[in-house]
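Thread: Modeling a multi-component assembly for a lab meeting

Hi all, long-time lurker, first post. My supervisor asked me to bring a structural picture of a complex we are working on to next week's group meeting, and I have zero experience with this. I have the sequence lines for every component (501 residues in total). Could someone generate the structure of the whole assembly? Inputs are pasted exactly as I received them:
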Amino acid sequence: MTCAEFQRELPEYLEGGAPQLRDHLNMCPSCSGLVASLESISREARQLQASEEPSPRVWNSIEIALRQEKLIREPRPRNTLVPSLFQRWGAMAWAVPVAAALLVVVGISLYQRPSSPTDARQRTAGNTPAVTAKFAGDPSDEQLLQEVSRRAPLMRDAYERNLKDVNDYIKDAQDSVNADPNDEEAQQALIDAYGQKSMIYEMALDRSLP
Amino acid sequence: MIIAPASPRFCNRNATGLASVVLVAITTLSLAETKKEYRFDVGPHAKVSIVNQFGKVSVKPSPGNYVLVNATVYSDKVEVDQSQNGSRVDVQSHLLAGANSDNARVDYDVLVPADSNVEMESATGPLHAEKLHGDVEAEGANAPIDVRDIAGSHVHVKTMNGTVTLTNIRDGHVEIDSVSGDVILNSVTGPLVRVSSTTGRIQYDGDFGYAGEYRFNSHSGNIDATIPADASVDVKAQSVRGQVQNDVPLQPKVHTSFLVREGSSFAGTFNKAASSVWLRTFSGRIHLKKR
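Re: Modeling a multi-component assembly
Sure thing. I ran the full set together rather than chain by chain. Output:
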C-alpha cells in the first residue's frame, strides 16, 4: 500500500475501521506521524469541558475560514466524515475538523505532489527522507521544512522562524481555550492561529515558492 | 626611476579593448533581457490571473476592454505561458531547468479593464494594484504588497514576510493575513476589514467608515489605530498579556463580552458608534490615538 492509498482510506481508519491500514502504519513513519498528530488533537479536544453550542457567528466564522482556505466547497452529505466526528466528539467537535482538515490536506499535499521525477520514484519506492528533530512533536513541520530546503534552501530560515512563531501562537490560543472553553474570542483566536499555519503550508507548497 | 609615459598607440589599444568589453557586456545584457507583449480582448468582469515566481507584478486600469501584458524576461531560464478562455486570461512564469531566484526573474506590467477581477502572485514581488473596482487577490511569501484606490470590491492579501500597504480602499471587503510582515492601512473602510497577524505590526489610520466591522488581531504584533475627531466607533481592545493605551475619550460601555481591566483592555463608544472595532492581541501593545 502506498502513502497515497493509505490517505484515501484515512477517514475510515480514524472512525475505527479499515484495520488492514495498520500494517502500513507500522512500516511508514511519515503516515504514522500524521495519524499520531490527528489522534493527539482529538484527545485534546475530548479533554475540553463540554460547553454550550457555539453561537451562529462562530460557525459562520469557521465556515468562512475553511472556504477561504479551500478546505470545503460544497455542503457535505450527512453520511460523511464531518457529521460522524460531531457524533463522536460532541459539542467541542468544532475544533477537531478544523485542525484535522488542516493536517490531512497538508499531509496529502506533501505526499501527492512529486515535484521531480526523482522525488516521484523515491516516493513510489517507499523511501522517506530522514526527519531531523528540530520541531519535536510535529513531524509535518519538519517535513515541510525539508521540502522548503530542497526547493529553496535560502528560504528555509524564514519559514522555520515563521513556523515557530505560529506554533507559539497556536499554543497560547490553545491555552486560552483550555482556561475558558466558553470564551468565544479565544476560540476565534485558535482558528486564526491555525489559519496562519495553514497559510504557511500553502505558500511553502504552492507554485509561488521561490 | 623614470616612468615613461604610455605611447599614444598603447593608449588607443587599451581604450579600444575597454570599449569592446563594455560593448559586449551591454549586448549580452540586452540579449538576456527580453520584452514580450500580449494583448487580450475581453468582456465585462474579466478574470485575470498573473502567477509569477520571481519579480514584480503591477496591475493598473486600461482605457479599453482589453488586457495588455508587458513582460520583461531576464534570462532564458524562464518563459511566459499565457492563455485566454473567453474573458479569463491566465499568465504564468514557467521555470525551466537551471532556474533559480537569481536568474528566473520576470517583471509584469499589466493593464486590465477596471472592473476585472485580478489575482496576482509572486514570491518575491513587489505586487501592486491600483484604481480598480473588481476583486483583487494578492499573494506572496516575501512580497511587499501595495494596493490602492480600490472601491467596492473584495481585497484579499496573503503574505508571510512582506509588508502590506493598503491605501484608500473604499467600501471594501478586506481580508489580510500576514505572519510577520507589517500591515499598514490608510483610509481603508468597508463593511468588513479583517487583519490577522502573528508577529507583524498592524497600523491603521482612518475613520473606520460607517456601519462596518473591523477586526484586527495579532499574537505578538503591536496594534496602533489613529482616528479623526469625527470618527464614529464602538471599540473593544484587549491584550491578554501586553498593555493597552487609549487616548480617545470613549463613553464607557455598560456591558462587554470580556472583563475590562485597567491597562490590559478597554471598551467604549465614540460619537455615534457606527462601526464596530475589535482590537485583540496576546502579547503585543494596543494604542488607540486621536489625530
